[in-house]
């Protein structure tokens, strides 16, 4: 990202220097009443080598370089603007598809300066290799299970082939995949952080197991969740176009068809009903990609997360539990509190769980604290914090609880 920003800054400087040169050159030429020596459209050549001094096809192509450079600058400007958090987070599709214009920008910039092809050839070769590997991973379909957790939260369970971890230095608990789901969108590929600690799965699972069950936790926009009133037609239709909402609606439709909840049904009963409803679908996975973070290098790790950011915290908490002896590890302290923030429009829920490893643990990592901030109206007691023995849907973190 920093490299891209520096490149865009250099392009801007390049354009400003060119504009300054044009103004200074024309001013000096007019004062001295001199004929044109360097063409304004392409000052790297002499006037008689470029259109209008040279009307040949080569001269016209040399004069067109100013337009190809300007086109590339506009594409890079559009990409730069869409990287702002207000656009990237709220309008991810705009951010995603605008970045695909860089494929056109690379072609145009090579027309702008022919030597650019030789400069970009190493990067283009790596890009082609990377996409070849991505397409190879995305070529295989995987059967997956989509489960509604409740209050607009969903869990996607996917059996990952064990050979995907070959050659991976999977020491970090944080790993993400790119998911392609044709029922939601044919063109889009979205990154998701898995709540499964893959490093522990690789070390603890038997080699005879061909697959590793991994899980993705995501949330649907509340305006289009199951409890949304049908009177909100316009915002609901707009939100249903979002990729995650289309995926979540697959379970919503099944749930509605099976047993619509009554007005007197309590939330716990509704959640149990939704958990009993699953939707079988197929998707394609690319990854995993691991982060360089290594929590085991620190004595205390504090995860400050909000909303769906809890997915990474669950993976880190699972890594903390795995590194300690499961039989000996028990939570020493568990805290949960409510606090109303002054000036905030909504009351917020702060769920704080502190887990201490036994004093005899050999690892440097002795303490893991998860602080999860979520709107109280949207809070849900996620089943991943509670042990559910014999559950085939979740991979529970038995010793991590929220009360």
Automatic annotation (TrEMBL):
PANTHER family: FERRIC REDUCTION OXIDASE 6-RELATED (PTHR11972:SF69), NADPH OXIDASE (PTHR11972)
Residue span(s) of domain Ferric oxidoreductase: 4-110
Superkingdom of origin organism: Eukaryota
Transmembrane segments: 60-87, 94-118
InterPro entries: Cyt_b245_heavy_chain, Fe3_Rdtase_TM_dom, FNR_nucleotide-bd, RBOH/FRE
GO MF, any single term: oxidoreductase activity
Protein keywords: Electron transport, Ion transport, Membrane, Oxidoreductase, Transmembrane, Transmembrane helix, Transport
Keyword RNA-binding among record annotations: no
One annotated GO biological process: monoatomic ion transport
Family annotation (Pfam families): Ferric_reduct
Database matches in Gene3D superfamilies: Nucleotide-binding domain of ferredoxin-NADP reductase (FNR) module
Subcellular location field: Membrane
Full protein name: Ferric oxidoreductase domain-containing protein
Membrane topology: Multi-pass membrane protein
GO cellular component term, pick one: plasma membrane
Annotated organism of origin: Letharia columbiana
